[in-house]
Amino acid sequence: MMVCDADISQNTRGKRTALQAQARETLQIRCYAEDLLPRWHFLRAMQAKPLVRQSSPNRLAEVLERLDNSCWYWGPMDSMEAMRKLKYQPNGTYLLRDSTDSRHLFTLSVRTDKAGMTNVRILYKRGRFTLDSIEPADRNMPNFDCVLKLIYYYKRVSNNLDGRKVFAMESKEKESDATSTPQEIPFVLKKPLFHKPATLKHLCRTAINRTLSLEQVLELNLPLTVENYMLKYPYPI
């Protein structure tokens, strides 16, 4: 039986196409797994904290997704590493990281004028986020259902007080430091320190959010995919 060159070429192309399709599928699975890996590590680490065991894992997964989109959430990091990252940055530069205190979720590290760097602990109580403060002032502190809303609020407030200052209690990195005298430190939030480059479409999203409110965006009758993308990160920072 004779097999012509055309048949061999066609079979070769067919095998090559099948291998390419298999390679693309493998790459997609790998990328999907790599995308899920930080979320899995985050939830695994957070579930070890007593505070989180009383909260909804789905809620924390939603918070993590929005933090991932921000590009300036650094995940696990201690105060010394945060200090190295912020050391040569302008005053008002900040980053969000996991708290090393097992009782809390996040810490906001800020480059300040006098203190050099300030760590502000973010409290999570009954599904709401608030900055740490000295009692009884903590009962009057603004609270938010998303940590990004909290940071955006203080970014606006600290830059629009006509010379007045926003104060927050400097956090202690370890539970053993909790007995030391707390200090209230003035701070201003100007710009975040990114740990990875933001995509062009994310930069477009934040630019739109700086111009339009979420309600105005929803009134534009955008395609559903675009609308869902905007809803995943409705913040201008």
From TrEMBL:
InterPro entries: SH2, SH2_dom_sf, SOCS_box, SOCS_box-like_dom_sf. Pfam families: SH2, SOCS_box. GO terms for molecular function: 1-phosphatidylinositol-3-kinase regulator activity. SMART domains: SH2 (SM00252), SOCS (SM00253), SOCS_box (SM00969). GO terms for cellular component: phosphatidylinositol 3-kinase complex. Keywords: Growth regulation, SH2 domain, Signal transduction inhibitor, Ubl conjugation pathway. Gene3D superfamilies: SH2 domain. CDD domains: SH2_SOCS_family. It comes from the Eukaryota. One of its GO terms (biological process) is intracellular signal transduction. The keyword rRNA-binding does not apply. This is Suppressor of cytokine signaling 2. It comes from Paramuricea clavata (Red gorgonian).
